[in-house]
Structure prediction request, 704 residues.
Amino acid sequence: MPPPNWSSQLIHLGAALLLLSSFAMLSQRRILSLVNLFALQGAVLSVSTAIVAYTSGASHLYASAALSLLLKVFLLPWILHRLIVRLNVRWDTETQLNIPATMLVGILVVVFAFALAQPIAQLSSAVTRSTIGIALAVVLLSFLMMITRRKAISQVIGFLAMENGLFFGATSATYGMPMVVELGVALDVLVGTLILGVFFFQIREQFDSLDLQHLERLKED
Amino acid sequence: MVLLWLLAIPLLGCMVLALFGARRWGAEANVAFSAATLAAAVVLTEHVIADGPMLVAHEQFFVDPFNVFLIALTALVGFTTSVFSRPYMRVEEHHGRVNRRRLRLYHSMYQLFVFTMLLALSTNNLGLLWVAMEAATLSTVLLVSLYRTAASIEAAWKYFILCGVGIAQALFGTILLYFAAEKVLGAEGSTALLWTHLNAVKGQLEPTVLGLAFVFLLVGYGTKVGLAPLHNWLPDAHAEGPTPISAVLSGLLLNVALYAVVRCKVLVDGATHSLLAGRLMMGFGLLSAVLAAFFLWRQRDIKRLFGYSSIEHMGIITFAFGMGGPIANFAALLHMTVHSLTKSAIFFAVGHAAQKAGTQIMDDIRGLIVVSPTIGWGLMIGTLAILGMPPFGVFTSEFLVLTTAMREHAWATPILLLALGIAFAAIFTRVQAMVFGDTRLQRLPHSPALLPVFAHLLLVLVLGVYIPPALAQWYRLAAALIG
Prediction:
């Protein structure tokens, strides 16, 4: 069955939105808004997975779309919101962040990702061939976000956004990994977030803030 | 069947200890579960020796000559470390650094960690291998911060973030691998991530994709191996966590991560028919060995010192696997075995020494030989073994690596010798000062468990003098498999 044109357009739209949300996260100072953007990115991811599932007829992708909806739109943002409330960091902002410079680096990262993905995209037979570059770009942008942030929670959101990019890469290039792997990855992400939640309390108990600049004592002099 | 027991025992141990680990007998139960795991591993090894490789549970798990010896080694070090940990953690409790609730977490996560290691080793599914590696990080991260000191929380955070980012790269590599494999094997029946299937068709996999995938996989799993320049988490995590955790991180986790890299290298070599994968591994290996050797000079903390020494040795092993060929692979496998045994023995001795001295700062530890001859000699002999003195096993494997390097890549030999020489000078002078000299140290409230130290060192000594034919045959088969 040749894929209908409109659905491939929709997947590309989803990919573009995903990339856009990555940039939005990169330029967002407020932690609360970051969590909301993360939930939005999860929603885009889930919808585009469902569209890929519909187009390709790969029924197990519906399950992974549902899984990412549950995990990334509801469960993880809910956990993060609760953490923010309990840690009382609702109004925290990233103060040391040079947004224009970060955006410029971000654009370079996207170009690099597309160049790297070029040979692979040509081999892809999937409906969504050109999206693998976007997936790689989202991964690298999240990486950039983790490097530039000073607050523990924003680093973690960068970490989770990176997983979103990987997930999108898996669906767009290969119609998803085998189910057992996907479940394992989802479990790891969930447990990881919970452990980080425990961590936040340990960090705050020890340093009285979630600023990571306190965590720079262990290094070679 | 035995294989399933091997995985079920530590998982059961994790659950039981999560419920009852706070009781007085938590440490004993930990030892008992580890002993049962070791017994299962021994039975499994005998099966494999008798019947050859096996493939069970819809081909999801398999054991071949390459992973069976690592499984046996993992179960053995897991057991001896639990024996060491019993009195060690009692003393820590006595010193008030941990309480019963944290000991419950500790014992439960210890078993979970052993489970993830064994799962990573025995699974045939490269996706599950990734999941197990990530779970290994998750299970140890709260153990690194067990003491809740500022430094330990920082170390655990670094460990989590660096290894998490690293392992995300490995997931991207795995996705690319699946992408290439699915074209050949088809997405139906989900055989496209099973290593045995991939190995059968590796010649048909798309070379460009696999080359790119290997870069991601090497960077990803390489972070957990502790390869430079992504090694920053390793010395911190080793120094700030409880010593039994340092011993299993060095002795087991690094090996298993390297195992993952080598498994992928076999596939990539088959597909690309080029030296790309090997050359990359040689480069990262040499860089790690040299960098670690120079950093060794600047250390003041004894556990950091040996953490850097682990980076150096993993660098040498990675280099040897990168060279490839029967002799270099044989040497690398042997070095994996002896390094893991020696380094965990050293950490046992270091743990007791640091506990006696009440500090990990090397300048404050003096005259161990007077306070406790067994700890002093244990540390001294262990150090000589890890530095590659004959007749220990490390000498044999390093000698093989060096001679192969001389023959095939002569340019690398001086670099390797430089790294080994610097490491020798740095570690030996430090340890000598700690073992001999005057002291005013007190006795410990619980007598230390030194049996594991000498058991490991004896094994390393035996491996240096005489490798049993069965084991040598094993290494040869595994080396041929790696190619």
